[in-house]
Write a structure and sequence with these properties.
Blueprint lengths: L6 E4 L10 H10 L4 E4 L10 H14 L2 E8 L14 H15 L3 E5 L11 H23 L2 E5 L7 H11 L4 E6 H6 L4 H8 L3 E5 L2 E7 L2 E7 L8 H11 L5 E3 L6 E4 L15 H13 L11 H17 L7
Parallel strand pairs: 1-2, 1-10, 2-3, 3-4, 4-5, 5-6, 6-7
Antiparallel strand pairs: 8-9, 9-11
Length: about 325
């Protein structure tokens, strides 16, 4: 069944190749993609407007839509990189890059799971992100660019990201919905979609395998169709909840992450987790099976994982416009 949902990828999927934006556009065109997400500011040769407009023209000629992004915009996160200046300057630059590229979004994120253990916990970091976003709203509005905050690496659960978006204003801020990061935040990807889908303006999609190891669980991200997500059901709901939003594959595979649920101090940063949401992840864990590690940092391995995933999405799920 043809779903008529745009299909593309996040450049992080093939990070080991070290390609810059122009090479990535050529590759995306050769793969017959509809979109490409440039999820970092290092992917460009520079941030001059003429250069960025040339990239946009090249994308237009290839029939590609660019989504632009960056990393953490939380100045108090352990992941924040001061290379681009303070957080307001950093997010402002991302918005300007997005505008020049014709991107409707500026993808960004708070941090990672370690921020749940920081002083004040994840709520304090959410407050800091909200302050940064509010400071750049006039620029975002003038640029026609929506700030797209990702549920990233176990930082926020879907409910928390929805609360953050609502506190800033959903007319100005949306979600970059990441199905794989849901499992790192103790969520079932299907439940994550139900909550975040109505706010999604961009995506990072990959599969996950979850299994039990004594009293703990282990999560390993996989290529599409090689984990446990029921993608046909997922994209049936996606089409309803996220009309017009592209599916951008962010394939990160080859390694497993354990969650030591049995340790007495594990739950301290997850005191707000709802039993109903966690139960979905445990259902996956009971039916999952251990996987062997892959060559996570190898360029050819990453490229093969992405291309196999693109084929699966087209042939098995009917994604893509071309």
């Amino acid at each position: 069944m043809k779903r008529n949902i745009p299909l593309g990828f996040d450049n992080f999927s093939i990070r080991a190749l070290g390609w810059k934006a122009s090479q990535l556009l050529d590759y995306a065109g050769a793969q017959k993609c509809d979109t490409v997400l440039f999820s970092d500011l290092n992917v460009y040769e520079n941030h001059n407007e003429n250069y960025l407009r040339d990239l946009k023209k090249k994308a237009d000629d290839l029939g590609l839509k660019i989504h632009a992004g960056t990393g953490s915009i939380c100045p108090t996160s352990k992941t924040y990189d001061a290379k681009w200046g303070d957080a307001i300057t950093h997010l402002s630059l991302t918005i300007r890059v997005a505008k020049a590229l014709g991107s409707p979004v500026a993808r960004c994120y708070l941090g990672n799971a370690a921020d749940r253990l920081s002083e004040g916990g994840i709520r304090a970091r959410m407050h800091d992100v909200a302050e940064v976003c509010r400071a750049v709203l006039p620029l975002a509005l003038d640029s026609g660019v929506k700030i797209a905050i990702e549920n990233h690496a176990g930082d926020m659960q879907a409910r928390e990201l929805v609360q953050l978006i609502e506190s800033i204003g959903p007319d100005f801020v949306g979600a970059t919905l990441d199905s794989g990061n849901a499992t790192w935040a103790l969520e079932d990807p299907a439940r994550n979609l139900e909550l975040l889908g109505p706010y999604a303006v961009s995506t990072g999609i990959r599969d996950s395998m979850v299994w039990q190891d004594k009293e703990n669980i282990v999560v390993q991200w996989t290529a599409m169709g090689e984990g446990q997500v029921d993608w046909k059901a997922y994209f049936d709901r996606f089409a309803t909840l996220c009309p017009g939003v592209p599916v951008q594959l962010e394939i990160i595979s080859g390694f497993a992450r354990p969650f030591e649920l049995g340790k007495s101090d594990f739950w301290a940063p997850y005191e707000d987790v709802r039993a109903h949401d966690f139960a979905g992840l445990m259902r996956l864990a009971r039916s999952g099976k251990p996987l062997q590690p892959g060559k996570a940092n190898d360029a050819e391995y990453q490229k093969a994982e992405l291309e196999r995933s693109l084929r699966y999405c087209r042939e098995e799920l009917g994604l893509g416009l071309k």
